[in-house]
Amino acid sequence: MTANEIRQAFLDFFKEKGHTIVPSAPIVVKDDPTLMFTNAGMNQFKDYFLGNKFPPYGRVADTQKCLRVSGKHNDLEEVGVDTYHHTMFEMLGNWSFGDYFKREAITWSWELLTEIYKIPKDRLYATVFEGDAKEGLPASAIALAKWQELLPEDHIVYGNKKDNFWEMGDTGPCGPCSEIHVDCRPDEERSKTPGHLLVNKDHPQVIEIWNNVFIQFNRKKDGSLEPLPATHVDTGMGLERLVRVLQGKASNYDTDIFTGTIAVTEKISGKKYDGSDTKEAIAFRVIADHIRAISFTIADGQLPSNTGAGYVIRRILRRAVRYYFSYLDYKQPLLTQLVPVLAKQFEGVFPELLQQSDFVAKVVKEEEEAFLRTLDKGLK
Ligand code: GLY
Q1: pTM tops 0.90
Q2: Model confidence over 333-371: pLDDT tens digits?
Q3: Closest ligand 1 atom, residue 213 Cα
Q4: Does the chain have fewer CB atoms within 10 Å around its N or its C terminus?
């Protein structure tokens, strides 16, 4: 399946299960002082979880543009160095606002992964919250019982608050979660070291793909947890990782989500991407990743600047420039040339980029020119 088919299959599956498909919220957050950028699919639904607003639907699903480069969820330093973290990524999600809960959410995620996407069952692992005495939180008995119906005991891993209690920020809706991990290692390696020992251990081939969060609390400013009037489901599956698993690749950058921009970067720079850990290969990955974050954020209304969200975008752009300047030996604006490629690729899912492609390319070019001048002067 292509990435587009994989995304569509997710949306079709949840539509069948009574979900309304809604558009992604903008990546730039303007009305929530606790966030700069959308860092999870659930952000746009925060008021429904907290009971501040009444949701128009009980079940929704979507693909959400997310950016994890600041605050509680920040992956920037890993990006490009490894092959499975991103600044901007698409989070596929399904939500229940006071409707279905743990059993249905887990059953459907299993059905989608094993029956529609046909991921072999023996490669899947689930994590379950073990409870936290200090917070007065019990272990997740319902999630555990559901997983025990689906998986053998050695494919269930118990996790603490760090891995299995999800919070969007310092305050806000939160709750215990159950993650699904896939072991993509070759059979020979799998028979030597069982996969459950590598879950949540930063192994590049044993990766989390989906998180089922059961929103039950509001974390308040004073640190306390307040039970919510209703219970909700909030799930997030990283599209780039899912595509890599389904396309049988060892790296997200080898999927059709990234190969288009990497091929154009090869043509522009005259260098070849070999997927290794060299600085040159990292530069290709950094560029392929960062151009997405930069382009979609500008298209959603955040220009690079010297403060706040604008400064975060400027820093991401400059990180990409430093990589091509130093390791691809390319001294002209490069990122701007990738904007039309990306805009065309996402025409059917995020048309806002194609609609503003010329404007975005112009902003990126001006930023690159200014920073290249600074780099040149600095080096002299
Ligand atoms: N809100 C679910 C997640 O981001 O993992």
Answers
A1: yes
A2: 999 999 999 999 999 999 999 999 999 999 999 999 999
A3: 2
A4: C
Atom 3 (ligand 1) nearest CA: 236
The H or E element spanning position 221 is: none
Q: Is the pLDDT of residue 236 over 80?
A: yes
Please tell me the distance between residue 304's alpha carbon and the centre of ligand 1 in angstroms: 27
In degrees and rounded to multiples of 5, residue 6 shows phi and psi of: -65, -45
- The yes-or-no verdict on residue 237 having pLDDT over 90 is yes
Ligand 1 pocket, residue 233 CB under 6 Å: no
- State both tokens at 378: 């600095």
**Average pLDDT score over the chain:** 96
Strands 165-167 and 69-70: unpaired
Does the Cβ of 234 fall within 6 Å of ligand 1? Answer: yes
pLDDT of residue 69: 85
Taking only the tens place, the pLDDT of each residue in 322-336 is 999 999 999 999 999
Q: Is the CB of 213 under 6 A from ligand 1?
A: yes
Quick one: angle between helices 3-16 and 239-246, nearest 10?
A: 110
Residues 6+ apart with CB under 8 A from 182: 119, 123, 124, 125, 206, 207, 209, 245
Which neighbouring-strand residues pair with 126?
A: 156, 180
CA distance 321 to 319: 6
Does residue 169's CB lie within 6 angstroms of at least one atom of ligand 1? Answer: no
Q: Helix or strand or coil: residue 62?
A: strand
Q: Report the Cα 140 to chain-centroid distance in Å.
A: 25
Q: Is ligand 1 within 6 A of the CB of residue 64?
A: no
- Amino acid 19 reads H
Q: What pLDDT is attached to residue 333? A: 98
Q: Is 208 in the pocket of ligand 1 (CB under 6 A)?
A: no
